[in-house]
């Protein structure tokens, strides 16, 4: 069994979509717009991103992108820094090399190995 799809509610559909495409190589499905977009990954998981004014996620809610190496985690982090994002530095946490970043959609993204 594998996760098939996930829907997230966000204030900024385009910003969230662009962020996930740029840093995590997610690909757009269909015709995206500012009210909803669908993304997919290399494993066929589909993420729906829907506009919702004032969407709030509980503390600790996050999505994670597992990377093949600590070097890849560092590479993504450095790209974010070069792009002017204020991402916390990667560190050893719960047995993983990881960092978190609050994306334009308002939820946390974890990047880990």
From TrEMBL:
Organism: Deinococcus cellulosilyticus (strain DSM 18568 / NBRC 106333 / KACC 11606 / 5516J-15)
PROSITE patterns in UniProt: VOC
Alphabetical list of Gene3D superfamilies matching this protein: 2,3-Dihydroxybiphenyl 1,2-Dioxygenase, domain 1
Domain VOC as annotated: residue spans: 2-113
Protein name: VOC domain-containing protein
């Amino acid at each position: 069994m594998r996760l098939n799809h996930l829907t997230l509610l966000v204030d900024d559909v385009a910003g969230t979509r662009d962020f996930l495409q740029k840093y995590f190589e997610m690909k757009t499905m269909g015709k995206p717009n500012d009210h909803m977009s669908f993304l997919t990954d290399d494993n066929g998981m589909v993420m729906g991103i829907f506009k919702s004014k004032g969407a709030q996620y509980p503390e600790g809610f996050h999505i994670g992108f597992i990377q093949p190496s600590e070097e890849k985690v560092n590479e993504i982090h450095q790209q974010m820094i070069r792009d002017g994002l204020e991402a916390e530095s990667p560190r050893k946490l719960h047995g993983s090399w990881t960092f978190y970043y609050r994306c334009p959609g308002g939820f946390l993204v974890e990047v880990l190995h």
